[in-house]
Amino acid sequence: MHKSRPFTQSGKSFIWIWAALAILLVSGCVTMEVEEKPFEPPVFPPPPDPPRFVWDRTIQSSVDVVEEDTTESFRRMVTGENRSGEGFRKPYGIAVHKGRIFVGDSVNRTIFAFDFPERRFFKVGDDDGPGMLLKPLGLATDGSGNLYIVDASARNLKVYSRDGEYITTVAKKGDLDRPTGVAVSKDGSKVYIVDTGGVRSPNHRVRVYEVATGEHLFDIGKRGTGDGEFNLPNNATRGPTGNILVVDGGNFRIQEFTPNGVFVKSIGGIGRQFGQFSRPKGIGVDSEGNIYVADAAFGNFQIFDPQGRLLLFVGARGDGGPAKYFLPAGLAVDDDGRVYIVDQFYRKVGVFRPANVDPGTGYFAPIIKKK
């Protein structure tokens, strides 16, 4: 009868070697699959609907715009340090002009300027001169890129050039109760300062001034719930026709006025359904007249057509990842159609681009081409 061979120690070693190799091969395959999986930026609306907006990037500090030089890169490679820069502490207002993004920080008491075409970062209003800022809130730019900043603590409005040089101050002592937002005519001749008032104050209004002389021209609105009246207004913007749109926060709506203060229409209402508002904050308008409104309670922004019909909502309340927000504040729209939304809680600015705008075009094109 045939006898089987004994299972020797060398045979055991041979099997263990092959088993180890098999484990390594399997582990290597799994690791490769994880590493090769590409990041898919969030799109809105989500599939299966065709996307209309794509999350583009997040801006948190100066390192997001300033290129790293060779010396710094080598030093970090040797030391293992992470790259660091000047970041936000409590961002609120935002304005954009031809690739230059201005973000107000009320705790840092300054405006951070991110110039993407020039890959440059600088600050506005952080010196001890007449342009010193105490608590910047609402921001706006005119057609030339001049910057208009509401200073809530000084209770006035300061005007700077596009490069951050102080020009003038608008509104005298006692003119404003609680200034928060601002819109400016395209030619920079008139400013519309949102005066929020307070719970016991009757002065819930928009005050209009001539910039060159500082003269107070007229007021829009008073406290109330009717057409053209306000309850705790907090922000404003200029539309492509020159009309002024005001966030009427306590009435949970957006109101539109002609440049001369004549009421046109209102949008929205209180609620948690699509097209309604809970804590409306930032507002922007694109070149076609579509209206973008950030809501601090929803963690997103809603888009309405010029007639006030809801088109889409973008973003969601969440953990601070891409397209996730917890306390949205200011909002702006640039000439490319990109939307910029400030999140105070996560201290960041989220950027979204229209799905039909290639990431390598417009004011962000110099970045893409340099990488």
Automatic annotation (TrEMBL):
Signal peptide: none annotated. The keyword Phosphoprotein does not apply. Pfam families: NHL. Keywords: Repeat. One of its GO terms (biological process) is protein polyubiquitination. InterPro entries: 6-blade_b-propeller_TolB-like (IPR011042), NHL_repeat (IPR001258), TRIM-NHL_E3_ligases (IPR050952). One of its GO terms (molecular function) is zinc ion binding. PANTHER family: E3 UBIQUITIN-PROTEIN LIGASE NHLRC1-RELATED, PROTEIN LIN-41. This is NHL repeat domain protein. It comes from hydrothermal vent metagenome.
